[in-house]
Structures are given as C-alpha cells and as structure tokens.
C-alpha cells in the first residue's frame, strides 16, 4: 500500500490505522482502521450491531473515550444529521452522515469499498463524517453535509477541509450499463463527466470514478481544491490491508473512520 503525502500509517496496541496530516496538524483526533488480525470493529455487514469493545480499543489508541462513539445505521441514503449528544446505534436509522460542533463526541462510520469523508471547519470548529457509497454519491450526500455545516453552524465552504479515506476507485469500480447510464444522466451538467466514466475491459461493463465526481461537486460548492486531501488508496487494489466488499464477498468485514473535536 502506497502512503502519499497526505497521510501517515500507524500501529498501536495491535491496531493498524491511517491518519491525515492536515487534521493532525490541527490537533483533530481521528483514524481510519486498516485490517488487524485481532480487531473486529463491527459485526459483518452494514446492518449489524456496533461492537462497543472494538470501538473502545480503537478509541484508546488515539486517546479518546470509546463510550462516546456515535455510529449511525448506514443505509446508503443522502441523510445527514446534526449530533448534539451520544446517540445509541439504534436511534440513528437510515443516517449516513454526521456533523457536530460538540467536543468529546466521536463521529463514526464504516465501509468496505464505499467512500468515507472526514470534514473539518477550523474556523467554526465543526466536524463531519460521511458515508458515501455509489448510491450515496448518486444522491449527492457529500453536498448535503456541506450544506448542513453552512446552514446549521454558519460554516464558510472555503474554510472546510475534506479528507478522503480508502475506497474502491475507478480502476476497480466496474458496473453494468444501467448504473453507468444513471451517472452520466445525473451528472451530465459536469462538463468533464467523460473523465469519470469509461468503458470496462469486459463487454457491457464500465468504470466509474465516484471520488472524482464528488470532488467536482465539492468544488462547485466552494470547497477549495487545496483543502481536499485524498489518501489515494483503492480498497480493492489493497485488499490485503484494507477491507473490500468486492474482494471479501458475503463474509466481508468493515473498517471504521472516527473523528472528534
């Protein structure tokens, strides 16, 4: 796995994880977990229940209180919720994005190929954690998160920092023609949409760059390109170290991204 200039890879107490240098420089506690033989953050599948002991171990590695984890029941929606207290997992049905300005609350999401975004406004002191699979990207959830930071916390889009965790990339995200058509029609307003959708190696297959499309949407929202930090890690290409649904199949496990003020 290549480590680019935006991230660092760490290991503590048997837990492997990466962190983003811009967030570290701003003293924002966060992590994205890599595969660790002795760590199961959550039960198999997105509908499972939160593994509280797993989260306590991850949080302890970066000196956070694992009792304060807020993990929604992800369901590939466009829904983003403001968090003002520690909610139970079951209370956050069909929520795929979280934002808060409260200290000590830990926002968590999970993935196994989907994109996880960590957001931070250093001026208004607001953080976000967003799960955006291809369905969430199609529904433009990352824009909803930025809009909510602006409307609820008076953030300025030019101040918001976006960090992109490991996910499946265009090189490996192969889809059928129906999904390809959905994206080309939905995002036809992007003048460079052809840069993000291409023919696959097999007949009737196509590749989609959901990260690239979302980056274009973010820039149209006023996010500065210099404030978008991508780890550039494809989960499928790096399946030995990163959880991937396409690589692991029905018994896939998930990684987690956590962030706290």
Structure, explained:
The longest helix has 13 residues, at 141-153. The protein is 22% helix and 26% strand. It is globular. It has helices spanning 21-25, 52-61, 134-138, 141-153, 177-186, 210-220, 245-248; strands at 7-12, 15-20, 29-33, 69-70, 80-82, 97-100, 106-111, 115-121, 126-132, 161-164, 174-176, 197-199, 205-208, 228-230, 255-260.
Q: What is the CATH class name of the largest domain?
A: Alpha Beta
| Topology, number of strands | 15
- The overall number of domains is 2
Order of helices and strands: EEHEHEEEEEEHHEEHEEHEHE
Residue ranges: pLDDT <50 for 5 or more in a row? none
Number of helices: 7
Q: Mind summarizing the main beta sheet?
A: 6 strands, mixed
Based on CA atoms alone, the radius of gyration comes out at: 17 Å
Large-scale geometry: globular
Q: Residue-averaged pLDDT, rounded?
A: 93
β-sheet strand percentage: 25-35%
What is the annotated CATH architecture of the largest domain? 4-Layer Sandwich
The fourth-level CATH homologous superfamily of the largest domain is: CNF1/YfiH-like putative cysteine hydrolases
């Amino acid at each position: 796995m290549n480590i680019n200039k935006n991230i660092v890879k760490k290991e503590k107490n048997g837990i492997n994880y990466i962190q983003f240098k811009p967030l570290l420089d701003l003293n924002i506690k966060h992590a994205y977990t890599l595969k660790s033989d002795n760590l199961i953050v959550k039960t198999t599948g997105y509908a499972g229940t939160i593994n509280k002991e797993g989260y306590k171990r991850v949080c302890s590695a970066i000196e956070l209180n694992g009792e304060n984890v807020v993990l929604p029941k992800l369901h590939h929606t466009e829904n983003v919720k403001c968090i003002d207290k520690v909610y139970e997992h079951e209370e956050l049905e069909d929520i795929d994005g979280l934002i808060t300005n409260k200290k000590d609350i830990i926002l968590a999401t999970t993935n196994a190929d989907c994109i996880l975004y960590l957001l931070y406004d250093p001026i208004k002191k607001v953080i976000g954690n967003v799960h955006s699979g291809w369905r969430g990207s199609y529904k433009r959830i990352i824009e909803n998160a930025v809009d909510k930071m602006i409307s609820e916390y008076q953030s300025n889009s030019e101040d918001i920092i976006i960090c992109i965790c490991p996910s499946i990339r265009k090189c490996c995200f192969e889809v059928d023609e129906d999904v390809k058509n959905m994206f080309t029609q939905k995002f036809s307003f992007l003048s460079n949409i052809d840069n993000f959708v291409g023919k696959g190696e097999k007949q009737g297959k196509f590749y989609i760059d959901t990260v690239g499309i979302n980056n274009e949407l973010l820039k149209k929202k006023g996010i500065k390109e210099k404030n978008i930090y991508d780890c550039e890690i494809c989960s499928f290409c790096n399946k030995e170290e990163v959880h991937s649904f396409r690589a692991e199949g029905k018994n896939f496990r998930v990684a987690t991204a956590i962030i706290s003020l």
